[in-house]
Amino acid sequence: MNKREAQGYDIPAVENWISQNVDGLTPPFEWTQLEGGHSNLTYQIDDVNGKQAVIRRPPMGELLPKAHDMGREWSIISALGPTNVPIPAALGFCEDPGVTGAWFYVMGLIDGRPLYSAEETLDWVPEAKREALAFSFFDVLADLHSLDPDEIGLSDLGKKENYVGRQLKTWYRSWNSSIDMAQFDDPRAHELQQYFLDHMPDQGMARLVHGDYGLHNCLTGPDAKIAAVVDWEISTLGDPLADLAYALNIWPQPDDEIPLKPDAATNVPGFPPRYQLAQRYADRTGRSLEKLDYYVGFNRWKTAAILHGVYGRYMAGQKSTEGVDVEELRERIETALLQAEHAVNRLR
Q1: Domains of the chain
Q2: pLDDT digit string, tens, across residues 24-56
Q3: pTM of this prediction?
C-alpha cells in the first residue's frame, strides 16, 4: 500500500487534527498498516522528523453496539499510564466522527512484537530467555490485578458483581440459540453450565480484567519481557481469577491430557510448566488458587460456547466456509468441553 493511503482514514483531516491536538508529531506522515488488532484499522505513522506513533480506529461498516469501542480502550490506557502495568503512551483521542467517520486515538509506538505462533516465538525469543518471558507475562497480569479500579478512575467501566454468573448467562444463551443452526448439541454444555452455577466461588473485590490476555495481545520486547499490553476493547471489571485461568490455558504442562496445538506460541522448548506460573502469580498477589480449576473449566466451557456460535453460523450458511475446516471447528468444541470436564473432575 502507498505510504500515503490508509483504509478508513481521511489522511488530510486526520493529520490536521493531530497537528492541533497531539504534541510532538509533525505531518505529513508515512502510514504503514500493522497486523492484528481484532480487525481494528491500526497504522504506524512516521512524521517528518522521524518520530513514530500508532493510530487506531474501528473497522469500516456497521458495528455491534459495544464492539470495537475506542473510547473504552482510550480510557483504560490513559488510566494505566501512571501505573506499573506496561502500556503504550496515550497521546490523543478524537471523538468527533466528522474527522474520519469514527472515533480514533493515537498512542506511542512500542518496540515489541505480538506472538501468534510457535514459529514467531522461535524467531523472536531465544530459548534461554523464554523463562523470563513467561515470568514477565504473569508478573504483568498480577500487577494489573493488584490495582483498585476506583483508585485509578475506572470504577464505572462495568458492573463489579457476579462476573462469572453474568458470563455463564450470556454464553449459555449463545449456546442454546445456536443449536438449531449448528444442528449440534452436547449434553455436557448443559451439565457443566449447571455445575458452574451451583459451585460458583465468592468473587471477592472486582479488578480490571483484560478478557483476552495472551501473547497475541502483548508486545514482547527485544529483552524478552512484556513491553506493553494492548487490545483492551473487551476489558471490564470482574473476577481476576477468571482472567488468570484464561491466560494459563495457553501454557503447557507435561502431564496435560490434551496437548496444546502444535503451532501454539507457547508450544516451544524453554517455558516453565503451567503450575509454576500459576504459583508465581499467587505469590505476587497473595490470592488463593484453591478453586483455580473451577475457573479453568469455566473458561474451557466458555470457549466451547463461543466456537459453537461460530460453527452454527457456518452451518447455516451465514459465513463462507471457503478455506475453513468446519469439521475441525466442531472437534475444537468437543475438545474444549472435554477439557472443561477434566478441570471439573479435578475439583470433585
Answers
A1: 11-108 (3.30.200.20), 118-347 (3.90.1200.10)
A2: 999 999 999 987 645 789 999 999 999 999 999
A3: 0.93
